[in-house]
Amino acid sequence: MSEGASVQQAVTIGHGLAMRYRLVPDGSRQVIMFLTAGDLCNPPIYPITMDHGIAAVTQVRIDRFDSGSLVRLTTTMPGLDQALWIVAEEQNAIMRDHITSLGRCDARTRVLILLKELATRLGIPGSPLTPVFIPVTQTLLADAAGLTHIHFNRVLGDMVKSGVISTSRGGIFVNSLYSLDKLDNNLTVAA
Q1: Are the beta carbons of 167 and 157 closer than 8 angstroms?
Q2: Residue 131 has pLDDT above 90, yes or no
Q3: Are 170 and 140 in contact (CB under 8 A)?
Q4: Which of 3, 69, 101, 160 is most enclosed, with most CB atoms within 10 A?
């Protein structure tokens, strides 16, 4: 979906990973957030004009639902409207965290927050010691963290040396959420 497109359907990510982004006046792109399986691409299910774009990061299956049918369902299914608002608020919370990290955190903390968010959303719930593969290129992750690719690689290199992550073709392995939390606590104490 591109910026300015009129969306008449509710669209969800059925499988894969996508990103919300905006193009800025100089022609560059700013990744706003990543969308994982189950995420609504347009949480307000009403027809809208997109003020940002959404693009696939990996192979993606999308599911489309007629907005009018969903609106009618919200009047007949108690709790559906509330569930849709909760989904929208969860995405808003992720974007608020992202905005705060871009505006107030140093590069290491930004990268850490981004990796924790993605590893948490892509990992197996309740398995903080299981490695999690984040199938996103370093270039896209750098963009999402608001860093140059070179600066991002320096920060990533430090995390690789400490054993918190490892790099792989096409993405990054977070060795465990526990190790990210431990690194986060060390950064918080040091700051």
Answers
A1: no
A2: no
A3: no
A4: 101
Is 67 within 8 Å of 9 (Cβ atoms)? yes
* Separation of alpha carbons 74 and 147, rounded Å: 41
Residue-by-residue DSSP string for 102-129: HHH--HHHHHHHHHHHHHHHHS-TT-TT
Q: What string of DSSP letters covers 53-65?
A: EEEESS--EEEEE
Among the listed residues 191, 20, 21, 19, the one whose alpha carbon sits nearest the alpha carbon of residue 108? 191
- Which pTM does this prediction carry? 0.81
Q: Which of 100, 132, 157 is the last residue of a domain?
A: 100
CATH of the domain at 133: 1.10.10.10
What is the predicted pLDDT for the residue at 189? Answer: 40
Banded model confidence at residue 190, pLDDT cuts 50, 70, 90: very low
pLDDT band at 153 (very low <50, low <70, confident <90, very high): very high
Asked whether residue 111 falls in the same domain as residue 183, the answer is yes
Tokens for 93? 């919370």
2 DSSP assignment: -
What share of the chain has pLDDT > 70, as a percent? 92
Residue whose token pair is 């924790």: 116
The answer to the question of residue 168 being in a domain is yes
First to last CA, the chain: 40
Distances (CA, A) of 91 to 84, 85, 169, 182: 11, 10, 28, 25
